[in-house]
Amino acid sequence: MAQNYDVVIMGGGTGGYVAAIRSAQLGLKTAIVEKGNLGGTCLHKGCIPSKALLRSAEVYATTKNHAADFGVVTGDVSLDFSRVQQRKQAIVDQLHAGVQGLMKKGKIDVYEGIGRILGPSIFSPNAGTVSVEMANGEENEMLIPNNVIIATGSRPRTLPGLTIDGEFVMSSDEALQMQELPKSILIVGGGVIGIEWASMLNDFGVEVTVIEYADRIIPTEDKDVSKEMLKLLSKKGVKFAIGAKVMADTLETGDNGVTIQAEVKDGMQTFNAEKMLVSVGRQANVENIGLENTDIIVEQGFIKVKPSFQTKESHIYAIGDVIGGLQLAHVASHEGITAVEHIKGNNPHAINYDLVSRCVYSNPEAASVGITEEQAKEKGHDVKVGKFSFKAIGKALVYGESDGFVKIIADKATNDILGVHMIGPHVTDMISEAGLAMVLDATPWEIAETIHPHPTLSEVMGEAALAVDGKAIHS
Question: What's the whole-model pTM score?
Fold first, then answer.
């Protein structure tokens, strides 16, 4: 029997389940269709499990290499990777149970199966229907929604010729399930995910080589941050090949692990390791969801939407990784809330993506909001820059992590903050101050006038803000 809903959400990842919660809060009868586990990629194959592994790697590396610096005598330090994986899974399971509880609390119906959009039917001559192929083998369900939100997410992309076999060549999905750490690994791609894995595996004691096609790692970040990250990870032992084009047809796997060649500035270079991790971005899940039964436009692999997140079909919305842009969990959540608010007729503000904070959870961490110095100049801004090192921050010295800096870019004429870029200890927890400052259209002077407690890492923000006008105290 067909079920009627105000909103049916296809995909129960971070964007999908947050949209469902907001929908239920607004009094809309809501359902989620999810073929896997609620929480999606972020909870089960991305944000949470990778950060759990990163934390274990950080604790291991700190204990093994730096405990004596704190006067702590540890003796031999060893790693039980099975317990690392058990801890990761326990965290995922706890959060998964929490999401399931939120669905029950919101009286949100969850259908475990594959959802497909069908054309208009006798049940729904205007809006169409959503068919659910039930995962448990039961008879398919037919849902009749007034509105649909597509939140089907994304999956790891690979390069032509670099087939993911799960044994020698992995994506991040397979890497998260490793039961044993390799002795060495090649990471193809020096973007955010590649750098996080490089940092993690290096801290676990794996010999890591990163092969990046662009002329610098994390190329979407400010050049100064990229340069500092390269320096600090190289100092820890990570090897890099920058401006290197991987020749997929040279890939060989077998008893000797993985061998591949890359075109570098000086010719061809051969790389060898036990495993390979391909980290070259993500592609949207737009297949097999019934888009061919709609007028929805897909451009360069992503669903095209309006600022309201409506597709060409006014009753069908799309959010999260499936629409491209900033493929971040917190972005998907806000897109989902905005879409639901629009469905309800609340006329929400369009999202300003320049005000979205971006994080790299490596060791050291990096974080940013706004535009880079290079982008600011390209846009015609006459910029002034304040930069302050963690080496002059007492709490950073207490932590034993004083590498890195905060950089604030402002417009000389208006004093508006254009971007804030950080690298160093716990900056992913500090970037929200900069994000709030930009949302409130604060100036560097206003950040500097905010009295930052001492001793804290956050003092670096105040000093960097003073540095914009050459007034830093401790430099």
Answer: 0.95
